[in-house]
Amino acid sequence: MSRLMMLELANPWWLVMAPIVAITPWLRRGVKVRLAALSEVRHRGGLRSLLGRLPPLLASLGLMALTVALARPQLVDRERVLEREGIDIQIALDTSGSMEAEDFVIGGRSANRLDVSKAVIAKFIEGRPDDRVGLVLFGEEAFTQVPLTLDHQAVIGMLSEVEIGMAGSRATAIGDAIAIAGRPLKDLEAESRVMILLTDGHNNAGHVDPVVAAKAADTLGVRIYTIGVGSKDGGRGGGLMGLFRSRRSDLDEPMLRNIAEQTKARYFRAADTAALAEVYATIDALEKTTAEAKVYVHRDEQFHLIAVIGMVLLMLSSVLGETVLRRLP
Fold this sequence. Notes:
37% helix; six-stranded mixed β-sheet; 11 helices
């Protein structure tokens, strides 16, 4: 919400008359009387002569004030209210042992899939200030790490603490992750509900079939964007022993593609850091938060006092001109 207060004129074209009305009183100064004596000429430059110019001056100021009043100065208060319809976004992140493979690069140095995913997800969350975001972790089991919230700093803080094996390291329960991430979305009234599921494996644990879970999510209006991470050769493992051990890629792309298609979303493959960043940029562009700006305008008329001042000046000019400062022929 932003507010802007300005002084505006409702009828500014009246100001065109200002120069004309300003000189009008000076055009009616009456008949000038010729004086015969030099002593009389000296008296003409005295105080009374100077005061004699006061009535037309007051009349000029009064007419100008009335002209400004006719222009209707207004104190305008504009209040701009931006109303946003946020999106509910559940992020399901694989923390199984295979996410330890170091086939990604950050800052010119090799990094494992989980660390790169966490960095890209954090940047994605920072770019969605109006959306509620939740975090679900999965491996052998699945659980909610952070419920849907607008406190993005809390989500990013918890995300930074995620480690390999937090949900079990020996298997991947993709179906359970979809079921758990989709559960809170069914009770919410957001205009759009989205799930982003990132994994480098296939479903080999849990109690829920991933495709069945995806169909259930579709009935709730949830779109599931699936992301398969990892290079084609699987990369080497993390840690010292990773120098001598490579990890075979067992990514089930057909399943991930099927999940996305069931929910009218898309599947992405991210084989390196740049590709993963591009995936989240694409999702960010596809899922736009709707915004509507409303402007409320309050106008406070300011011409009343100016009009009163103008009338008083004209009356004072008339009274002085007809009494103490009256010019005699």
